[in-house]
Amino acid sequence: MFDWFAFTNGAAAFVLAFAAAGVFTVAFKLIYQWVTPYHERTLIREGNTAAAISLGGALIGYVLPLASALSHTVSLLEFAAWALLAGVIQILVFVTMSRLAFRNLTTRIEAGEVAAAVYLASISICVGLLNAACMTT
To answer: What's the CA gap between 93 and 59, in Å, rounded?
Structure first.
């Protein structure tokens, strides 16, 4: 038998969690775009596939641990702490890759070189998977 009361409680928790995850994702995207020296929005509008791939990889790399945090946390505050940590780690990955490991990465992405973007996106996703697996309560 369908329990309407249980459903409404669960639906309210779902909406709150989904909204919080959406807010954190948008905030991460804006901060990530602020940290990168190129302007993804402009590059993507101009048809730069490399910029779209690198930003998409960073978003996936961020959302994977966010999903894990949603599954493993018991409070909104705990979720927010994991979301913040996941964002910091993804940004550190970009800074490390672009300034230390692969110095001409930003120039190559601005030039539309897909290989560089796929490499950065792959690293972002790999770090996101590891980050998600390491999250526990």
So the answer is: 13
CA–CA dist 50, 5 (Å, integer)? 48
Give the pTM: 0.91
Q: What is the pLDDT of residues 43-65, one digit of tens each?
A: 999 999 999 999 999 999 999 99
Q: Which two tokens stand for residue 65?
A: 């641990």
State both tokens at 32: 């990530």
Q: What are the backbone angles phi and psi of residue 110, rounded to the nearest 5°?
A: -60, -35
Q: What backbone torsions phi and psi does residue 81 show, to the nearest 5 degrees?
A: -65, -45
In terms of Cα–Cα distance, which of 88, 86, 66 is closest to 20? 66
The amino acid at 102: F
**Tens digits of residue pLDDT in 61-100:** 999 999 999 999 989 999 999 999 999 999 999 999 988 8
Task: Say how far apart CA 81 and CA 27 lie, in whole Å.
Answer: 14
Contact present, 111 and 43 (Cβ < 8 Å): no
